[in-house]
Amino acid sequence: MSTATLLSSIQKNTFRYGGPVLITVGSVSCLLNIMVFTKGTLRKNPCATCLTGINSVNFICFYLNLLFAMLTIGYNINLTSNSIVICKFQYYIALVLACLESSYIILASIDRTLITSPNAHIRKISTRRLVIISMIIIAIFWLICHIHALILMEILQYGPNYYICYRQQGIYNTIMNYYALVINGVLPPLLMTTFGLWTVKNVHSVRLVHETSRIRNTVTITIGKQHTLQSKDHQLVRMLLVDIFSFVICKCPSSFFLMYQQITKYVEKSAEQQSIEQSLLILTYFLYYIENGISCYTNMFVSKTFRGELKNTLKDIYLRFFN
Q1: pLDDT tens-digit series, residues 210-251
Q2: pLDDT tens profile 25-73
Q3: Is residue 139 classed exposed, middle or buried when 0-12, 13-18 and 19+ CB atoms within 10 A define those classes?
Q4: How distant is the alpha carbon of residue 8 from its chain centre?
Q5: In 3D, which of 84, 41, 108, 80 has the Cα closest to residue 242?
Q6: What secondary structure letter does DSSP report for 219?
Q7: Is the pLDDT of residue 196 over 60?
Q8: Do residues 27 and 62 make contact, with C-beta atoms less than 8 angstroms apart?
Q9: What stretches of the chain show up as alpha helix (H) in DSSP?
Q10: DSSP helix/strand/coil, 153
């Protein structure tokens, strides 16, 4: 068995058997996260509001993105190639959801940077109302920005009875290749990492002030939401940092592979090498969706506050349906 044939089999089985598992496990993760972040002590927290939005987007992504990919790759049921309406809508919503998730994570990162700032005036900027308004504006912006997908997507014939839903060839296809690389592949990890490191620096600065104050036995310095930061806000910082790490690990490989394909675009390749590269790219897409469905499970490991709220949520569900 050749490498190309082996990888083709692996990609098909990954989506055929791994797809339903990931959709199920990921849906549970998103729903539990939403229930936790909209109840109890976390409900009015600006960062928790962002995380609720992120998990709502991820939940939709499983059924409007991954489900289509699973049916096409794993079961040879290509709905997008049979209907131009489905073709355009699926690509449009895929672009919007990808940008919404990364934008909301960046927004949450900015919020944590603000709330951990040593400057009291800067910390006051972090409010739930401002976050909600920002999320609405971001959603409207990306919905309008990607309207071009509803116009320039088309169904192309690549062989006898072989049709695929793809971008209009020519300048639009080239622009979208670089657009996806920059907007989805380069900028989000860069901004997330920048604000994440800035937040860590702020947290370290607050701890340093506490330590210095205690060692010198001076008057306690109260810095806005300093005490809250040491409890639920500090827990949210940890959860967000893990989310950023997961995003970079799972989303970047597909971007790097697209970058490689653009660089080697005019290099002559054998049919087997092209098949191998296509299979590897599709496998990175499966990795891409893993990040959407693991947040709840990583939160349980890193946050005591989240575990407590999740326990209370599950208890409420049990009492409601079984008592």
Answers
A1: 555 455 554 444 444 443 455 678 889 999 999 999 999 999
A2: 999 999 999 999 998 778 889 999 999 999 999 999 999 999 999 999 9
A3: middle
A4: 26
A5: 108
A6: P
A7: yes
A8: yes
A9: 3-13, 19-37, 46-61, 67-69, 75, 84-115, 120-123, 128-145, 149-152, 171-179, 187-216, 226-228, 234-263, 271-290, 295-302, 304-322
A10: strand
Grouping H, G, I as helix, E, B as strand and the rest as coil, residue 158 is: strand
Coil/strand/helix, residue 156: strand
Residue showing tokens 């971001």: 138
What is the spatial distance between Cα 34 and Cα 22, in angstroms, rounded to a whole number?
18
Please write the tens of the pLDDT for every residue from 146-191. 999 999 999 988 878 788 999 998 899 889 989 988 998 899 999 9
Whether 288 and 257 have beta carbons less than 8 Å apart is answered as: no
Closest by CA position to 141, among listed 102, 194, 185, 86: 102
Q: Nearest-CA neighbor of 240 among 309, 193, 308?
A: 193
pLDDT of 283 over the 80 cut: yes
Residues in a beta bridge with 164: 156
Give yes or no for a contact between 150 and 89, defined as CB atoms under 8 angstroms apart: yes
Take residue 53 and report the two structure tokens written for it.
């939005």
* Tokens describing residue 127: 């409010």
d(CA 8, CA 21): 20
Alpha carbon separation from 107 to 114, 218, 234, 297, 310 (Å, rounded): 11, 37, 17, 22, 24
Q: Which two tokens stand for residue 109?
A: 């990162």
Supply 186's token pair.
């380069």
Q: Which of 233, 251, 255 is nearest to 291 (CA)?
A: 251
In three-state secondary structure terms, 161 is coil
Measured CA to CA, the distance from residue 244 to residue 256 in angstroms comes to 17
Distances (CA, A) of 6 to 1, 15, 20, 105, 141: 7, 15, 22, 36, 42
Residue type, 72: T
Say what the pLDDT of residue 208 is: 56
Residues paired with residue 166 on neighbouring β-strands, in sequence order: 154
Q: Residue 133: exposed, middle, or buried by beta-carbon count in 10 A (0-12, 13-18, 19+)?
A: exposed
